[in-house]
Amino acid sequence: MMPETSALLVEFEFTTLNEIDAISNDHVLGLHYIGAEALSNVQNLPTQRIAMPILSDDADLLYELWSTTKSCYNGKFQDIAFRATDTVLFGVLEIDESTLGLDNGESTLRAATEIAYRQIFLLLDAKNFTHLWRVWNYLPDIHAEECGLERYRQFNIGRHHAFVACDRSVNNSPAASALGVTQGVFSVAFIAGRTVPTRIENPRQISAFAYPIEYGPRSPAFTRAAVVANGEYETLFISGTASIVGHETTHHGDVVAQTQETIANLAALLEQANTRAQASVYALENLIYRVYIRNANDYPQVRQVLDAAIGNSIRVIYVQAEICRQDLLIEIEALAIKPLALDNA
Ligand code: 3EB
User: How close is the Cα of 178 to the center of ligand 1, in Å?
Assistant: First the structure.
């Protein structure tokens, strides 16, 4: 007999499509729409438009769909468009900073970020999706100065304030990425659920939420990776990972060495996840990757390093993006979705 399980079952699927006609599937939660010209919304689905040039030659535009094994319902809450089942919620919000009309000389990105995260936490509290699992942040003009501080740092202040204001500890942050975009407005996409994620930190790095003040007055609220059980599947979300050891950027100006160091950091996270599972569940060869490269010219070299270290049959897309620290040339995020082994087989 199968044990009685609660109704909290959901299984993710993740598909990359080069073309999309009509998504008639009510199991789709939402999507990431990626490419230099990814400027339109896709049907009525929560869509995070990521206007970044794709460097690999798979396609000029890609659609990364998040779906589940259950039917989803649609919702709107303030600036958030979301879709959800009874156990998982995918939401997207965009804030056009030029519409905020601040008159107090405050950083518009800091204000927009605080608004965005307050809305997210309000929605999650109201719907009892207590746990934020994974967040993607895309910031226009990430390196520009605003009110005497780089906008990425202003973003960190706004995010930190919202966590504190909404009684969320930054030590319990979600997995995340934060990248610069050259087109489009500030956007945040997120996945939340009712189950507690297991947060994984990297022993080679200081936790981002504990970075020293030299990286900004408020530390970045994210964890290095998170594992969530969802129904018959377990999902590993690996945050944007870079060539950082301790809290310092390593290999300045050397994209090959930065890529190798980044892969060493990814491997360290997998080791933590496998130790926790007491089994070799995760391997570099089996992850799905998004690779952000600052200088498009570096793409062939970066690709060579990944091919040599991980193999050339991995699922990966390469995009050109600004990375939050000016001395970082590359950042890699990853994902794994594993069926849970049946204990009673
Ligand atoms: C780092 O390790 C690189 O601010 O949410 C990676 C992933 C980075 C997420 C964020 C920042 C963020 O500090 C930068």
Answer: 6
Q: In tens digits, what is the pLDDT along the chain, a chain of 345 residues? A: 443 333 333 556 667 776 666 666 788 999 999 999 888 877 789 999 999 999 997 788 888 989 888 889 999 999 999 999 999 999 999 999 999 988 788 899 999 999 999 999 999 999 999 999 999 999 999 999 999 999 999 999 999 999 999 999 999 999 999 999 999 999 999 999 999 999 999 999 999 999 999 999 999 999 999 999 887 788 999 999 999 999 999 999 999 999 999 999 999 999 999 999 888 899 999 999 999 999 999 999 999 999 999 998 999 999 999 999 999 999 999 999 888 765 443
* Closest ligand 1 atom to 220 CA: 4
Residue nearest atom 14 in ligand 1 by C-alpha distance: 324
Closest-CA residue to 334 (of 282, 261, 279, 276): 282
Q: State the distance from the centre of ligand 1 to the C-alpha of 91, rounded, in angstroms.
A: 20
Residue 322 contacts by C-beta under 8 Å, 6 or more apart in sequence? 142, 143, 179, 180, 181, 182, 294
Q: Which ligand 1 atom is the nearest neighbour of the CA of 156? A: 4
Q: Please tell me the distance between residue 213's alpha carbon and the centre of ligand 1 in angstroms.
A: 15
User: Do the beta carbons of residue 72 and residue 29 sit within 8 Å?
Assistant: yes
Q: Is the pTM value of this prediction over 0.85? A: yes
Question: Are 62 and 317 spatial neighbours (Cβ–Cβ below 8 Å)?
Answer: yes
